[in-house]
């Protein structure tokens, strides 16, 4: 079976220190993923390395997914990140059960979770820069606007769902520059007979 890993991480802080921590996180994941197929062990090992090599008050959040080609089963780890969302049957479910962010403490427990996606189901992960984006009145974009944008594109491709969020976000913030990274991962299980690859 062919397996695919998808990661969305976010680091505390800005500028060079944050960029270096993100590079460290990416390199650590690349090195450890082949060694730790169990995601709880992957989280614990990544956490130890980031705590050992990191700076005080610097930490990273992470959602890591493992997909198996041809199957709807998704294994995932959430280390302190915004909970992933699953869209199915016109409803949105929030996937609770995250662990502590990476790098806070040397030893911490992390939990692997599992979900099965049926044909047409969608899993969405965003950075907190999406829901914490603010408009001219300093109101947050928030979870409700995110969900409304996703539901407006229900039945669309992964690309169309991601674009729906960006299309709602841009007029909301207007001319303001986003104060944080805006990142979106959309995983859609292909419908039978659907030629789209993702």
In words, what does this structure look like?
It is globular, with a radius of gyration of 17 Å. The chain contains five helices and eight strands. Helix 1 runs antiparallel to helix 2 and helix 4 packs across helix 5. The chain starts with a strand and ends in a 10-residue tail after the last strand. The strands form two sheets. Strands 1-2-3-6 form a four-stranded antiparallel β-sheet. A hairpin with a 2-residue loop joins strand 4 (85-88) and strand 5. 31% of the residues are buried. The longest helix has 18 residues, at 15-32. By secondary structure, the protein is α+β, with helices and mostly antiparallel strands. The model has no long low-confidence stretch (mean pLDDT 91). The chain has helices spanning 15-32, 39-53, 128-131, 142-152, 158-173; strands spanning 3-11, 60-68, 73-79, 85-88, 91-94, 112-116, 122-126, 184-188. Helices cover 32% and strands 24% of the residues.
Would you kindly provide a brief summary of this structure?
The chain has helices at about 15-30, 40-55, 130, 140-150, 160-175; strands at about 5-10, 60-70, 75-80, 85-90, 90-95, 110-115, 120-125, 185-190. It has about 200 residues and is of the alpha+beta class.
